[in-house]
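Below is a filled-in request sheet from our internal design queue. Each sheet records the structural input a requester submitted and the sequence that came back. We keep these sheets so that new team members can see what a complete request looks like end to end.

REQUESTER: design group, bay 2
PRIORITY: normal
MODE: inverse folding
CHAIN LENGTH: 255
BACKBONE (tokenized):
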């Protein structure tokens, strides 16, 4: 079972969409994924999924239509500039069924930053989905925008990361920290752990069991529990279940 997909126990998981051909073709490395995982975890939230998409209007519109329909919070990084390969603003509007209009607040910020040189190209960054809200950009004053729990940020980490921190500061209170505990199970196939995992999930609804096989010189299965509550009772039940089934286990090494 995939650990990341099951990491949002008791709280909504966030999505992350990173946009850019330069990331897909290897000219740049996606630095957003590790940053957002750490940023969200520090506030008791989690990253539930991550998409890496090209600068392709059809692909972007289709995927944004899906994510907007999920009803979950999503950060979107990249493609909100003014060059011909920046499609995110228009695709977000199309995916939401909205017009792309010149936002007066964004226009004022861009004109204030660049004066007459805002025209004819930079001002295009003020063309945003109708009714969206602005996200302040302390780096160069060119704002991002928010729409239906989606926060659209620049691709540059120097801009996007402080903007994401601002969003989380205004989004909601910190969640209860996500707790995790695990044992290393020895000498059994993963399939034999399924009944115990199902029983634990049913008995402790606030806890999600997971398994992660390790192969190689030290084969074992990491069998663990994740939740935003005291994991002690569930871990005691896990140990008892392993003992009753005659399965050997050992403590997970620190770190």
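RETURNED SEQUENCE:
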């Amino acid at each position: 079972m995939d650990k990341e997909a099951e990491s949002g126990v008791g709280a909504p998981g966030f999505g992350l969409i990173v946009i850019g051909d330069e990331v897909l073709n290897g000219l740049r490395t996606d630095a957003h994924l590790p940053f957002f995982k750490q940023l969200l975890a520090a506030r008791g939230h989690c990253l539930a999924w991550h998409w890496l998409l090209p600068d392709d209007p059809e692909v972007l519109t289709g995927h944004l239509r899906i994510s907007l329909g999920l009803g979950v919070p999503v950060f979107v990084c990249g493609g909100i500039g003014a060059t011909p390969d920046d499609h995110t603003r228009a695709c977000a509007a199309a995916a939401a069924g909205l017009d792309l209009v010149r936002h007066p607040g964004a226009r004022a910020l861009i004109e204030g930053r660049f004066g007459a040189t805002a025209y004819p190209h930079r001002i295009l960054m003020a063309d945003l989905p109708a009714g969206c809200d602005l996200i302040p950009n302390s780096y160069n004053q060119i704002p991002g925008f928010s729409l239906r729990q989606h926060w659209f940020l620049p691709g540059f980490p120097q801009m996007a990361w402080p903007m994401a921190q601002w969003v989380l500061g205004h989004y909601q209170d910190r969640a209860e920290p996500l707790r995790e505990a695990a044992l290393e199970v020895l000498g059994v196939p993963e399939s034999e752990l399924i009944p115990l995992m199902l029983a634990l999930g049913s008995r402790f609804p606030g806890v999600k069991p997971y398994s992660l096989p390790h192969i190689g010189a030290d084969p074992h299965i990491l069998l663990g529990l994740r939740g935003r509550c005291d994991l002690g009772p569930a871990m005691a039940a896990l140990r008892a279940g392993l003992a009753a089934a005659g399965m050997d286990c050992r403590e997970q090494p620190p770190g």
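SHEET NOTES:
- The chain has two domains: 4-171, 179-251.
- The first strand starts at residue 14 and ends at 19.
FILED BY: M.R.
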